[in-house]
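new request in #modeling-help
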Amino acid sequence: MLLLQIDWSFLLEKSVLILVIVLVSFGVAAYATWGERKVAAIMQDRLGPNRAGFMGLLQPLADGGKLFFKEEIIPEGSTRTIFILGPFLFMVTALMTSAVIPWGPDIHTAAGNVISLQVADINIGILFVFGVVSVGVYGIMLGGWASNNKFSLLSSIRSASQSISYELAMGLSLIALLMMSGSLSMREIAQQQHGFWDGHWLTWNVFKQPLGFFIFMVCAFAELNRAPFDLPECESELNMGYHQEYSSMKLGLYLFAEYINMFISSAVMVTLFWGSYNFPGMDWVAAHTNAIVFALICVIVLMAKITAFILFFMFIRWTLPRFRYDQLMNLGWKGLIPLALFNMVITGAAILWLFNK
Amino acid sequence: MNFLLLAAEQNTPFNYLPIALQLLIAVGFVGIMMGATHLLGPKRRTKDKLINFESGIPSVGNARQPMSVKYFLVAILFVLFDVEVIFFYPYAVNFRELGQEGFLAVLMFVGFFLCGFIYILKKGALKWED
């Protein structure tokens, strides 16, 4: 019965929004590869890509185009179906997480319509993100196993055990935040951080949960297999990583999906901790512009924060050395999990007895 | 009460429809990319090209050999602890309604969590060097 009531304009609106988000994800991922090479070049006193277009800005297009025209190789010893399924699953899960992120406030048009800049406002928003991220591990695991290559297998096992270990601390670090917000919905958490100053304290969650944010961020680095936790991809030990046997666009999908994951996890961190699309003085701006311009400014603010995070990810990569495997596991299990539990208990006690809310 | 109403409003199958739509678009997008590269790329397979890469050395045996049990141990511990972490979530969302009594009950649960945690540490389940 429910299906009969579907509003077709609603479906169209959502389809357009999803297409825009998917294309923007690809665009950001492509230019993140350019950005990474430029950042690396600047930090190492080199020039970086500067041949294709102005400042090498066409480099990502050239790289992407090249990957399409390369030969696909599926090694003889590999399990064919799973070998193809690996990158497919990894990319699909990378594209799915963006569904619950609010990209801007609701637009109330003059005609009385409400246009939402969030694909799906579900009440389990954060759990959805965790669920999809967990499925992402399968992409790496299947790809590494199906290759039937010792290096790939070793890398995928490392990656899986690293991801699941840090998922625990990641889940725990958010509980303190949820105690304050009382909701799992990303949109509600974003709205609670309205403006910058509520008369008593700063509204952004990072100023209320600095320890929770720190744990979440470290876990995000580990989940993304980014330096200093890039053990699954360390060239000096494993040649290349779980995508060693992959070529052409299948390799491209793995590499792009990693950058899309970086973009999305930056967006999640900004939404949960750094005030989402909110900025100081937003009430004044809202009163002096119309709804569409205001929403556009909010989206730009969100994108600026996300870009800052992506740059931070890159600076860290070219600054810190890699962890050893036992150090990585010790940090995750013996360091971050007890710390996150401690943070949760302290937050609960503080809210109950100190602020008495 | 207001909270419950809000939860009900957000929890109809209708809310999940856009997610199904996004899955469809994502699958389509990735499918087209993989199909395009399959059609566009050259196909000149040779025997040497299809051998698994092993740093240029002739590969020895199958890669799918028994591996360290430590990895499996981590996976099992993850399942155990992740279930416990998930139990915290409904509590955290209803934290304010449950008040002090609920908090004391959860402190007990944290105690059990820590007991299990200290047990696996003492057992050496997370020791990586022999």
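bot summary: The CA atoms of residues 182 and 189 of chain A lie 9 Å apart.
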